Amino acid sequence: MTADAAPQPDPEPLVEQLRAHAGFCTASGAPLYAELMTGMAQDLEAGGPTAEVFAGHERPPVGDVLQLRMLGGLHRVVLTRRAPLLATYYRSVGGEAAPEGAWTVARDVVAGHVDELREALAVPPQTNEPGRAAALAVGLQAAALVHGRTDVRLLEVGASAGLNLNVDRFRVTAADGDPAHVWGPADSPVDLTGSVLGGWPPPVDGLRVVERRGCDLAPVDACSAEGRLRLTSFVWPDHAERHRRLAGALALAAEHPVVVDRADAVEWLRDRLREPADDGVLTVVWHSVFVQYLDDATRSALWSVVDDASVRMPVAHLSLEAPRAPYMGSPTLMLDGAVLGGAPAHGVPLTIAS
Questions:
Q1: What is the pLDDT at residue 11?
Q2: Whole-prediction pTM value?
Q3: How many CB atoms lie within 10 A of CB 193?
Q4: 120, 155, 181: which is the final residue of a domain?
Q5: Nearest to 66 by CA among 102, 133, 16
Q6: First vs last C-alpha separation in the chain
Q7: Which has the closest alpha carbon to 153: 22, 76, 302, 259?
């Protein structure tokens, strides 16, 4: 990612952000976070330990999502087994307790980890959603079909930990069970079976990823304990299927590590596209839920780099992004400007455009 973020609305009182986000969590199948954010809002107003954590941040920009930074830090306390009673509410570690009453327990944990949670406010949420690989798999097949090439050099900007660069090692199938529309090994630890709805493009025989590389301003090392903990902590505890996908992708990353450079997206991509691909290889530039973090000038520069390279070599531009500013809506899968389908932010299910 570049350092410049898209313009954000004027800062709102954090207590209002917490209450609004609690409603979003309820609608998103995350009742634990709805309960915790509601409790955090009340505790913030009452001057409790939440107020200590957020001291000096009472009116943050909405885009900073400080509540998710704090909850990510709290999740790390749970994941590292330092809050066993609170863990009984977290599906991510096998907890089964109903969310009601979770804040009473969480408040004591917050009070005991104020300094650690204040430090967590400096760590922006960074997920690396393996579910988005369903769109990438379908898009790669479409790109190979359109460009007439089956060997792919895959370049991802805003790659985070680079988990989806192992896309050819994930299992993706169509919801209708059509055996012609199958991607990846049947025994893959990342199982996206039935994740594609609608008319998948015709299968392409022999498609293979011959080179893969990514960049990010703050890449996460998926092979380190710290990196795995960070990625896991930002997946909401109630989303058990997302945790299963992430665990599988982390296992593959340990077996098949990929290179994610610490670099600005525009400069990195310009340098990579100056390197000619081997004869017969299609270069695919891929990004997902990334452009919302770029300002208009950076976004335009990125598109120009791809356009300039396409004059010199076969290049496909594949993206899963909201289609218009401020790029915060439901993502659309696009290949070279043409719509292929759409998906929710976490990537599945992918619905092919009719």
A1: 63
A2: 0.92
A3: 14
A4: 120
A5: 16
A6: 32
A7: 259
- Going by C-alpha positions, the residue among 177, 163, 170, 173 that lies closest to residue 195 is 173
43: tokens are 């505790």
92-97 — which CB contacts under 8 Å span 24+ positions? 92/232, 92/235, 92/237, 92/240, 92/243, 93/237, 95/237
DSSP assignment of 177-215: --TTSEES-TT-SSEEEEEEES-PPPP-TT-EEEEEEEE
CATH code at position 249: 3.40.50
Q: What are the distances in angstroms from CA 154 to CA 40, 107, 138?
A: 42, 45, 14
Mark whether 116 and 140 lie in a shared domain: no
Of the residues 120, 145, 180, which one is the last residue of a structural domain?
120
pLDDT tens, position by position, 125-135: 888 999 999 99
Say whether both 249 and 328 belong to one domain.
yes
pLDDT tens-digit profile of 320-353?
999 876 666 789 999 999 999 999 989 999 999 9
Q: Are residues 103 and 158 in the same domain?
A: no
Give the Cα separation of 87 and 97 in Å (integer). 9
